[in-house]
Amino acid sequence: MTEYIYGDVLFIINFSMDFISLFICGKIMHFRMNPWRMALAATLGGVYGVASIFFTLGFWGDLALDAIMALALCFVAHYHGSAVKTFGITAIFLAVSMLMGGAMTALYSKIGKYQTYIEIGGKIQTVFGDMPLWLFAFLAAVSAFLTFFLQKAAHRRMSARVCRVRITFSEGVYEFSALVDTGNMASEPVSGGAVVFLSESAVKRLRGRSRELLFTDAGSVEGEEARLVRFIPVNTVSGYTLVSAIRPQKFEIAAKRVFEPRNVLVARDGFSVDYGGAEALVPHSLL
């Protein structure tokens, strides 16, 4: 039985899969991506995919060569001066590639790529049906458009850097401007709840018991305060410290016009007067 392999189609498939995998890895690692470097890396991957059908080094040899090639692709596409990050993104690239390979196998089976099985020389062999080139091109175009628009949607979501928050305490309702920070990963150790930081200027607007609790020191908490106050470990320019946080009666956030409730804790940031003109700092996960 003669098996035909079209080098141009195989190159396009490998190029497309490598480019998409590199793009996903760049997004995961929040790298600034250069399309020319990524295209060059995907080209190397496409050439390697075609060349690999002409030789074999055995299972372990092929596995080692694949890993070295993956490292080379990630070096070309995503090297930013850190060898550790390059090795890290290579591991992610291998995982993403395997997941996408499994997804493509499932897709092929759904559209009739695997047709039937026959017995040849006492062994069961898979007989592959043909996928029309126009169908492959159509699916590739759909994937490209989906990737593009999803990236644009994610970018628009990330660009909502300033929003409004409304916090209800027992003493009253306060509304602040807030800066959306993707680097705000602070959370309450027990529940894992997100933490919103108020600047010194915002805390000064508060009145009553809530303001007093936000100034509670970890070394002097006692009585009812121990039930109401949570201490959050944070890493600042001065090192690790604990900040006091309380749970408001209600917290709402509005990236545009509609306020939506969220379950958060509110803490005082004693190191910042404001955040570029905003009075609060909220994690991006709340949007």
Give a description of the structure.
The protein has 287 residues and is α+β, with helices and mostly antiparallel strands. The protein is 45% helix and 23% strand. The chain has eight helices and eleven strands. It has helices at residues 7-29, 35-51, 58-78, 83-110, 133-158, 200-203, 209-214, 225-228; strands at residues 114-120, 123-128, 162-169, 172-181, 194-198, 230-236, 239-246, 250-254, 260-261, 264-268, 280-283. The chain has a nine-stranded mixed β-sheet with strand order 6-7-10-5-11-4-3-8-9. Strands 1-2 form a two-stranded antiparallel ribbon. Helix 1 (7-29) packs across helix 2 (35-51) and helix 3 (58-78) crosses helix 4 (83-110). The longest helix is centred in the middle third of the chain and has 28 residues, at 83-110. It is elongated, with a radius of gyration of 27 Å.
